[in-house]
Design brief:
264 residues, 17% strand, alpha/beta, Rossmann fold, single chain, seven-stranded mixed β-sheet, 9 helices
Length: 264
């Protein structure tokens, strides 16, 4: 049995964007070139708006298709596999320990960490929303069984904004490309909520788009964690060859990323 980790850029998302481009082009033809509207300012405005929208959505769909190919587990590049396996190397669990993966999706990172730590267990949580309708608890459990860690992993619904666990529950916490998708004015608060459930002495590795626009000053956040008593905190740029080449990072600027890692 082979695991199925799906794709971080679902085909449905690409087709939906392409459908929007086609609809915009149709509206451009209807309002811009037909005689449905009399010549005038409004006709010119609508023609320009729908033409620009059609072009933009077409370019976005093309960009998403390129990402889909790059991330595919079955393709040549397999960037998602490289990221998952690379990130899991930073997660260390003690004998009999248990770790938490926030936003587990199809279970890839949860499973990878469990494979790297055969002496421990992992819990994966996700809300499994409509954006990724093909991701669900059953899929995660089936993937775990296929990878031989079904007895050391468990999956459940959860909310990253308010984790349903007491303080200092886990020996490690991790997450991959999750928090930038959560609408929030304070994503650093989400990071603190994740770190809240980490035991003293535990490790953490969180991979995301840590841009200033999304997270604010992350270097200041690193210093804040150190002042809070965290023994080790480091922000590692993954766009200079670790997970992607500088060229890939340039054309994939929206997913250029870093790892926030350390020890409590």
């Amino acid at each position: 049995m082979k695991p199925n980790y799906k794709n971080w850029i679902p085909k449905g998302m690409i087709l939906g964007t392409l459908g929007g481009a086609v609809a915009s082009l149709v509206l451009f033809l209807v309002f811009g070139l037909s005689g449905l509207l009399a010549a005038g300012t409004w006709k010119i405005i609508l023609k320009i708006v729908f033409l620009i929208l059609a072009i933009v959505l077409t370019l976005v769909a093309l960009w998403m298709w390129l990402l889909h190919r790059a991330f595919s587990y079955d393709g040549k590049r397999q960037m998602s596999k490289q990221i998952i396996e690379g990130l899991s190397q930073h997660v260390i669990l003690p004998e009999g320990g248990i770790g938490l993966d926030v936003g587990c999706g199809s279970g890839a990172l949860t499973i990878a960490v469990a494979k790297c730590n055969p002496q421990a267990k992992m819990v994966g949580i996700d809300r499994w929303g409509a954006e990724y309708a093909s991701y669900n608890q059953t899929l995660c459990e089936e993937n775990a069984k296929a990878e031989g860690v079904g007895d050391r992993t468990s999956f459940a619904k959860g909310n990253a904004l308010k984790l349903d666990f007491p303080d200092e529950t886990f020996d490690a916490v991790t997450s991959n490309y999750v928090y930038h998708n959560i609408p929030s004015r304070d994503r650093q608060a989400i990071l603190l909520e994740t770190l809240r459930v980490l035991k003293k002495g535990g490790t953490f590795a969180i991979h995301d788009v840590f841009s200033r626009m999304m997270y604010g000053d992350m270097q200041a956040f690193v210093q804040r964690l150190k002042e809070m008593g965290y023994e080790e905190v480091e922000l590692i740029d993954t766009t200079q060859g670790m997970f992607m080449s500088p060229w890939e990072a340039k054309w994939m600027t929206l997913i250029g990323s870093a790892i926030l890692k350390g020890k409590k």
